[in-house]
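Dear colleagues,

As part of the handover before I leave the project, I'm documenting each prediction I ran so the next person doesn't have to rerun anything. This entry is a single chain, and its sequence is reproduced below.
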Amino acid sequence: MSLRLSTVILPVDRWHEGGRAKWQRAEELGFHAAYTYDHLSWRSFRDGPWFGALPTLTAAATATDRLRLGTLVTSPNFRHPVTLAKELISLDDISGGRVTLGIGAGGNGFDATALGQEAWTPKERADRFGEFVPLLDRLLTEGAVSQKGDFYTAEEARNLPGCVQRPRLPFAVATTGPRGLKLAARHGQAWVTTGDPKLYEEGTPEQSVEALRGQIERLGRACAEADRDVADLDKILLHGFTPDRNRPLESVDAFVDFAGRHQELGFTEIVIHWPIPDSDFSVDEAAFEQIAPEAVAQLG
């Protein structure tokens, strides 16, 4: 299967001061998709500009024609399935059916306590995620939904006319744990990983490849249990969190080598961060712009 190359554009620019231009340039460069992070703030960017994901994607939908758009990733940390479904149906309509929802269980970042709650434990996050995804699935595929859960309730929630994409827009489920992989197997059209975080500081690229191989094997077992072919799921690697760091973005050759190794594992899409000066995503913009059209042509 051919490898798709996508980018993630962090929402740090005012729309009329560089924001719009990045999304339009992503389309010009031939990226398959452009995603953005769905956070209230994130890591070192907390004290600087940071805009909302869904309004940003709505603006991007009106500024582009072919580029797929999405979140990497939305989580239950500050979202509710009922309101999220209404916004996603609207975004899918405005974009003409170009939206993918990246979705994950969330973490302990700033989003976890911004609404005044205590940060959830890993078990609590998994419990909520296990309820959030199936309910959101129903909300996006059924005209009216009533459901009372332990964490999320919908009472006659109406979502007509539904998504442009049928039966609903695709879910890209970000997970590596056993419960999350079961959700990906049952509800996902794609699976997302950043690799093994334990290897980021002191691991090697070779160890990372083996860890990713193990993740894909576990995904395969979860799919088998769900009576589903693992080949039906796209497999997305969000670059930047493996021991390779930014080295694959130093040249077309370096990226082709990196991407080829991961394509052999079964990945169908790699997502690279749009350059941001003076940050963890600071890379040479000229090299970045070469990678998009040239690397994909070489990988086939």
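The chain is about 40% helix and 15% strand. Strands lie at 4-8, 33-36, 68-74, 99-104, 144-148, 153-158, 171-174, 190-193, 234-238, 269-273.

All the best with the project,
I.
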